[in-house]
Specification:
By secondary structure, this protein is an all-alpha fold. It contains 5 helices and no strands.
Length: about 120
């Protein structure tokens, strides 16, 4: 078997190419495999998500300082964390708007203000 990226000869037990580092894929492409790859690559939901979430609640300044100083392996990727947070916030807003519209209603004392928050542009 040859590597599909660099055409180097691979051994039967290799999981990665020794020349270019590409992952050796032996299974057919199915919807389940695509979903698993998506979760593994983009969301990377494992122990780092909980660790990052808890540290961001307790000591967000330490997470930021660690990330800037180069300590990134123990935390979730910034883009993945942002994607998950944005998805959860959107889901929360959808649930509030669908089942609890009174929770988003403006109190009376804000109604007379010149700036009124309009959430209709979100949907």
């Amino acid at each position: 078997m040859n590597c599909k990226n660099c055409e180097k000869q691979l051994l039967g037990a290799d999981s990665y190419c020794n020349q270019c580092g590409a992952k050796v894929i032996r299974q057919r492409l199915t919807l389940r495999n695509v979903g698993e790859e998506f979760v593994n690559i983009f969301l990377n939901v494992d122990n780092t998500f909980l660790k990052t979430f808890l540290q961001m609640l307790i000591n967000p300044h330490l997470v930021i300082l660690d990330y800037i100083s180069g300590i990134r392996k123990k935390y979730l990727n910034v883009i993945s964390y942002f994607t998950i947070a944005l998805t959860l916030a959107g889901l929360q807003l959808f649930i509030l708007r669908k089942f609890y519209p009174e929770a988003l209603a403006m109190p009376e004392f804000y109604q007379s203000a010149t700036v009124v928050m309009d959430l209709n542009w979100l949907f």
